Amino acid sequence: MEELRTGVYVCMCGTNIAKVVDVEAIAEFARTVPGVALAKTYKYMCSNPGQEMIVQDIREHKLNRIVVAACSPNMHERTFRSALRIAGLNQYLLEMANIREQCSWVHADTKGATEKAKALVYAAICRVKFHEELESVSVNMCPNVLIIGGGIAGMTAALELADAGNQVYLVEKNDHLGGNLARVDLTAPYLYSARDLLTERITRVMEHKKIKVFLNSTLRELKGFIGNFTASVSGVNGTGDKTAKPEVVEIGNVIVCTGYKEFDASRVVHYGYGKLPNVITSFELEKMIREGNIRTKEGKIPKYVAIIHCVGSRSQEFHSYCSRVCCMTALKYAHEIKSANPGCYISDIYIDMHAFGKGHEDFYRRSSEAKTLFLMYEKDDRPVIHKAEPKDNCEMLIEVNEKLSGEHIEIPADLVVLMVGMEAREDSHEIARLVNISQDNEGWFIESHPKLEPVATTTDGVFIAGTCVAPKDIPDTVAQARAAAARILARIAKEKIEVDALFSEVNENLCSGCRLCNTLCPFSAIEFDEIKKQSHIISALCKGCGVCVAACPSAAIKGRHFTDLQVLSQLEGLLAV
Amino acid sequence: MATRVNPEFIDDLDRFGAEDVKMCYQCGDCSTVCPHADEIFKFPRKSMRLLQMGLESKIETTLEPWLCYYCGQCSEQCPREADPGETMMSLRRWLISRYDFTGIARLFFRSRIAEIAAIIIIALITGAFLLYYGFTGGNIGIYDGEGAFLPSGFIHRFDLTVGGILLIFLVINAFRMWNFTMLKNTSLKVPWWLYITEIWQFPWHFFTQKRYAECEQKHEHPVYMPWLLHLGLMLGYVTMLVLVMVFVEALQSGPEIIWEVHIFGYLASAGLLAGTIYFIRNRLRKNYIQYKKSHGTDWVFVILLTIIVLTGIAQHVLHRTGVYEWANYLYVIHLMAVVPWLLRMPFCKWSHLLYRPLAMYFAAIRREAVRRQETILNNYPVFVK
Predict the structure, then answer these.
(1) Residues A203, B82: Cα–Cα separation, whole Å
(2) Which ipTM was obtained for this model?
(3) B1 in reach of chain A (CB within 8 A)
(4) For a 10 Å CB count at each end of chain B, is N or C smaller?
(5) Dihedral angle sign, alpha carbons of residues A171, A176, A180, A185
(6) Cα–Cα distance for residue pair B143/B327, rounded to 1 Å
């Protein structure tokens, strides 16, 4: 083995680290450790001069191991790895000691913090000694894409990808495209026709040479890993050609845009939905508006229409989240009903008016101008709907504690519209299982980072977009669909995909074929070779979490970059100071 | 018991001038800026809310619209251009029509044509009656004394008749107001003797209009100008009313000037003239927010008042200068304007002369009742609470 020449770099992070930890003392200490060739401090190690200093030192002093004592590796490990690459050193010969988040930010006592930082740095020096040179692997990227769900999100993503010349398979459970948007008349706040938005997309999708649409179909199975999936698609039971055997397609990426379903209004007993004939849901009103005939069950034109917000949303009992589109949709109804029956009076019974989007506040203002009567109720103090007496001259009376006036009031209504919220589809767990993504406790699919990775999932090659992720409006849905398409196009353009070298490997000489690891792997990355009777890890799918390493009874699995030797020497180093 | 919302009420109030109340989203800026709003009387926000919801039975029990003198600060601050000041004005118009049991006020506020037609008819009847009386018993060339066209004794009886009719309406309306705002409002128990201890509030506010002086009319210079002119107009009007009802015989005699009577007439005329010119000018210029929107009835009010003041002064001057025939004709025209003006009073905005100080009196009683209730509660032994 060549002579060990470790370079230790202690960052001050401006004053973030230096004001609590004595960085000079740490550098001083590091120089005394055997195998350390040099130790330096610097104001901002991540800055260009900081990195250049490391590159130059590697070249001049023939360093072969680097320890950077700075912030969390989540923040700057990539930065320093690239510095190593530039200097011609394998990037995995780096170890970071986190003396900011784990030291200076959480301690006030300089002496104690400095001692702790020394321990962390010493542990890193001990560990980096056993680091191995690793190489990333690359796999082929199949340019075909599978899209699940033919709503506005699915169609938008499909067109984006197919227009760039890639084959797209679009799977839709129903016998037509359009999803929930196809049930809507106009859209808020600009009152564009939903039909106009959809017709053009549907025609283009159906006629596109590069898009194959599977109607009345669902995904049956998804095998493989990023760039190399195999999906089988077959007809839904009861519809389509169910005798036909599943069609198998080769794909590189998947976008899930399965949308939402509306909340079942009969669950809120206060509103008498299903019992009172003139209490209807927003989608039932959409149907009336599309037919151009807003009437009560008795066939009369309603004089008083009440719209109740947050049905199923923003309540501890049902869903705690806001469904985001209902407020503006309710205002849209006020406009549509008023323009159909100008003599009609609209009461809009809400908790809070969420008018956050572009043009929304203005739309709210215009609704006031059109004399919509806004009445506010307290979150957990829902209105109650009663049947009215003949002398009341209306069908129903809605009793509510009006929050802005403090008055207990009753509102006359001939027609009550319940703004039902969005909820995850009942079959979403099935999709989640098939494509191996997670769901939150409400059933929405979880993105890999809520802010920075809104359309990616923890499974590489599987993207999510639209209202299957969380309630959102049309612009946000379309933006997500295009974002997912853009992410996939960027990968297709590279033709190959780099896979991080941090994956686990099975030592075939030791594996007994017990298959314990196969079921434990959270990423379905371990397959079983029936001929050899041994397990095999697909490196492209493995995230290096280490579950299999810990579980293997024969110690046959090695986590690359997290070998027993590396981890144990780090622990010994930590406890030695 | 739930109060029934009347969604159509807002349409009705449109006719009374509250067309912007629909824009209100209850931020409360108006109540914050108002120098008169307090813990017990929260306005304009609360009044606007009651109006939007059409809670008529609640609105008719409120005194709040009368506690507002319309300085316009709230309308300037309003972020939604909901014009709270004009809304309070409209509520006053609506309350006037509510206190009036005949329905005439409601008709006048909602239809300018009906109002003008009524004024013209009353004026014509008055004119015809006076001319008939004058030509049958008197001489058009004689203004005063023996054989006068309109003898002062007759005019006195005529005035008292008109005044009596006016008084009947006003007393009934005042009782209705008391019934709505104090008796029907059961939320508070008011001890009867508070009506006696607080009685001074009525004349105090009637003659000083102290609360109007407290309005912060930031754009007017000097700031007390609107208050001063309003006070002048009101005192002029009341003085004239007293002169006409009690001293008309002395007032009409001449041609020499009886200073101890006429000086009051001159001062009152000056007050009326100054006030009228000021209000016409501002309504035409629309320079301050409270003059931006003039309801039809506001114009009828100033035009009629102008005619009365000018013909009153003219007939007086003609009488003193010996042009008796023209003095008599102008006197007839003057009375043709005065009679509809007086008879119109219970049905128009001018009735706030009575309602506002009454409201101040009732409000003081309610405030005192609330204060007493709180003191009693606070002083009760703990086990009783």
Answers:
(1) 47
(2) 0.87
(3) yes
(4) N
(5) positive
(6) 7
What is the rounded CA–CA span in Å between residue B173 and residue B351?
Answer: 10
* pTM attached to this predicted model: 0.82
Q: Chain B contacts of A399, Cβ < 8 Å?
A: 2
Give the type of residue at A550: A
- pLDDT below 70 — which residues of chain A? 1, 237-244
For residue B27, give the chain A residue with the closest CA.
A404
Structurally, what CATH architecture does the domain formed by A6-134 represent?
3-Layer(aba) Sandwich (3.40)
The β-bridge relationship of strands A396-402 and A36-42 is: unpaired
* A265-421 and A145-259+425-496 share a CATH fold: yes
How distant is the Cα of B184 from the closest Cα of chain A, in angstroms? 17
B23: chain A residues, CB-CB within 8 Å: 365, 368-369
Residues of A with a Cβ under 8 Å from any B Cβ are 304, 345, 347, 365, 368-369, 371, 373-375, 397, 399, 402, 404-405, 407-412
CATH of A145-259+425-496, one of 3.10.129.10, 3.50.50.60, 3.90.1150.10, 3.40.50.300: 3.50.50.60
Residue intervals in chain B for CATH 1.10.1060.10: 9-99
The residue of B9, B31, B53 whose CB has the most chain A CBs within 10 angstroms, and thus the best one to mutate to test that interface, is B53
Task: Give the residue-averaged pLDDT of B364-384.
Answer: 80
Burial class (CB within 10 angstroms; exposed 0-12, middle 13-18, buried 19+) of A476? buried
Structure-token pair, residue A296: 């009560």
Q: Where are chain A's structural domains?
A: 6-134, 145-259+425-496, 265-421, 504-560
In A, which residues are within 8 Å of B19 by CB distance?
Answer: none
Residues A52, A79 contacting (CB under 8 angstroms) = no
Which of B1, B5, B45 should be substituted to probe chain A, the one whose Cβ sees the most A Cβ atoms within 10 Å? B5
For residue A308, give both structure tokens: 């109740």
pLDDT band, residue B287 (cuts 50/70/90) = confident
- Given an 8 Å threshold on Cβ–Cβ distance, is B55 in contact with A407? yes
Q: What is the mean pLDDT of residues B64-90?
A: 93
Report the residue from A304, A375, A407 with minimal CB separation from B3: A407
Q: Which residues on A lie below 8 Å from B61 (Cβ)? A: none
CB contact under 8 A, A371 and B11: yes
| A504-560 CATH fold | Alpha-Beta Plaits (3.30.70)
Q: How far is A376 from chain B (nearest CA, A)?
A: 11
Identify the CATH number of the domain defined by range B9-99: 1.10.1060.10
Q: How far apart are CA A270 and CA A129, in angstroms?
A: 69
Q: What is the pLDDT of residues B208-258, one digit of tens each?
A: 998 888 887 666 667 777 888 888 889 999 999 999 999 988 888 877 888
Place of tokens 């398979």: A169
CA closest to B10 among chain A residues: A371
Which residues in chain A touch residue B25, judged by CB atoms under 8 angstroms apart?
368, 374
From A304, A373, A397, residue closest to B52, measured CB to CB: A373
Q: Does domain A265-421 have CATH number 3.50.50.60?
A: yes
For A92, the 3-state DSSP assignment is helix
Counts of helices then strands in chain A (DSSP H, E):
14, 28
Interface A-B: count of C-beta contacts within 8 A: 60
Contact between A273 and A167 under an 8 Å Cβ cutoff? The reply is no
Q: Which residues of A touch B52 (CB under 8 A)?
A: 373-374
Contact status, residue A79 vs residue A51, Cβ threshold 8 Å:
yes
Helix (H) or strand (E) holding A516: helix A516-520
Interior CA angle at B49 toward B46 and B51, to 5°? Answer: 110
Q: Are strands A396-402 and A384-387 parallel, antiparallel or unpaired?
A: antiparallel
* Strand, helix or coil for residue A260: strand
Residue whose C-alpha is closest to residue B148's, from B158, B139, B157: B139
Put simply, the answer to whether A407 touches B80 (Cβ < 8 Å) is no
